[in-house]
């Protein structure tokens, strides 16, 4: 542990995921007292027409 | 809150997601006593060969 | 399908979950063209100190 | 119940998912004392650049 | 990978989870061609009043 | 977006969750180019007998 999932809009680049994963893992090790190897992060991209906030799809 | 995720077969249209999200948000506000803006809904499409029921993939 | 998960703050009653599940299932059948029996809904309660928005835990 | 989700790297074949689903369902019926029909399994494929372990994306 | 989550009714014992995890891991190694150490399984228990099928809560 | 879920072992304190949420939100804003208010983080605690790695429950 921990298992961290990040559901987000598609469009972020590999470099953004790389930097974010590096930073989050450092925080997990420092704050949650786990190890690097036991920190898993999964990014799941979604189109804006597959996400709704306030009762409306986010592509509107 | 709430965060609502809907895993379903691919093939539903944008209009179906739009109508479903609108209806679910109204229910959340009325019954769960939350606000529109705090109701997030995420649709995740899956092929029938990625879903199993009764021990068989659903494309059979 | 569909599999619907609802992550929300603890404190909602059984009656609220019952009414919400009934309404969401009706919407799923009517709009997503599935059957009652294939609509599964899972409610997961969470304390406000386990949810963060805007960088702050929601119990603040 | 149970609802079982399997997040994994893309690249597995339909035959692998089929055999895995069959085996997991048998285990669920035998060990968890559920029925075949109530065992749902969902496979979600992910590219290696969307998964991080040890602070690095898995395509490295 | 893989990350496997099992949402199920509360009431299963530690021994059941132990046997199920062992069996699923063997299947993952043999069929999905992963390693034991990279197979993570997470069990999440839920009361029957938190799960709905067919529009009704499962405690009915 | 993003919706970030953190499945982890129980035992972390409110202060740890608070610091982690603050740090992750800063990373999301800076790297993923989202806003503070649209960053949701959900922590889900699990006992070690509900998590398996390498085919064994983590309380062993």
Can you give me a brief rundown of this structure?
By secondary structure, chain A is an alpha+beta fold. Chain A has one helix at 14-31, and strands at 3-9, 40-46, 51-53, 56-57. In chain A, the strands form 2 sheets. Chain A has a two-stranded parallel ribbon. In chain A, strands 3-4 form a two-stranded antiparallel sheet.
Polypeptide structure, described:
6 copies of one chain form a homohexamer. Chain A has 60 residues and is α+β, with helices and mostly antiparallel strands. The first copy, chain A, has a single domain (3-57), classed as Macrophage Migration Inhibitory Factor (2-Layer Sandwich). Chain A has one helix spanning 14-31; strands spanning 3-9, 40-46, 51-53, 56-57. In chain A, the strands form 2 sheets. In chain A, strands 1-2 form a two-stranded parallel ribbon. The first copy, chain A, starts with a strand and ends with a strand. Chains in contact: A-B, A-D, A-E, A-F, B-C, B-D, B-F, C-D, C-E, C-F, D-E, E-F. At the A-F interface, β1 and α1 of A face β1 and α1 of F.
